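Z., the sequence and structure:
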Amino acid sequence: MRIACVGGGPASLYFAILMKRQDPAHDVTVYERDPAGATYGWGVTYWDGLLDQLRACDPESAESLRAASVRWHGGIAHVGDRTTAHDGDSGYGIGRHRMLAVLAARAAALGVRVVHAHPWPAHGPLPDADLVVAGDGVHSAVRARFARHFRPTTVAGRNTYLWLGTTRRFDAFTFGFVETPHGWIWCYAYGYEENRSTFLVECSPETHRGLGLDAIDEAGTLAVLTRLFARPLRGHPLIGPAGSDGHARWQTFRTLTNERWHQDHVVLLGDAAHTTHYSIGAGTTLAIEDARTLAAALRDESATATALRRYERQRKAALLPAQSAAHYSAQWYENLPRYLRLPPAHMFALLGQRHSPLLPHLPPRLYYRLDRATDLPTLRTLKRRLAPHLARLTHGPDRRPDEPRALPDPPRVGAAPPRR
């Protein structure tokens, strides 16, 4: 089979690796719009579950990614001048550029052609291939040309956010919540290199305007945020995006879904097919799972059309819990003042429960008491089982329970979409 992957992100590269492992005779090319070594974003975070999946499919790439990653342990939350810590969770961080380099090197070693500086515009011929995999992100040019068929919708969240970096290496997943005269503003931070961490800032539109962040340049924004988050930063600077034009690019997260995922020999993968709110840290894992499912369907089914139908059906069903968790997680942050009056340890406990479909419907103090008084494994199992069913009842398999609107025209080819 001749396969062309448009977009050189983790999903496309890993799919290419799996197809060459399944049959070295496959002719696989990955087309990336950016030059070699150029990327955007900061660090990617993931957990042991992703490594387990990678080891089962391609132990070589799993070990290379693990070796290129740093480990973070537990969580810390700064709430005003108070701090609370939790020793439970642990995960990995890796720079997006390092992850892409590892996967591209593995793909090339297996015989995949990785072509850089080769965008495919929204108009003109598609690659000459038996299968075209659209892994070109949330602003997918390939998806745009078949928008009438794929029927994409997008729902914008309420809060505004900004991706930054810092030279401080956070060894725990760290949250900082700061109250200002204009409302709360908060950060998420995790390490991904020896002297680098991702530092994501979020706030309501009212706080954004009240602090003047909508009217100052990037240097001014970094100065304001460095002052507000002095406690977690411990004297380290914040860093704006490389190649920045001097403007801090605050964004509103858009949850993207598609009614259909394939059209003839064209199929959507990763962020081109779906997005989930960054606060659950699942974007890369879900994209890799897309790649695994698509490769397995093509391996097991004799007809490509049957394989693509199976892939779409399986991934839509598998995504329901993640989509539900992402919706409730985003909603938790959009209603943050509801929880920040709790004692910090209680607030942090509910932060860990923010994916729950029950939490928005109970007073936070009552939920916390019930959570502690009930057998936790039983309650959490119940919530995990309830989540996909509530997702279907409230907003169906493909969208949040907001009124969706049509996906706007994609930006010019080459503009970078937000990444997790």
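The radius of gyration is 21 Å. The chain has a mean pLDDT of 88.

Let me know what you think.
H.
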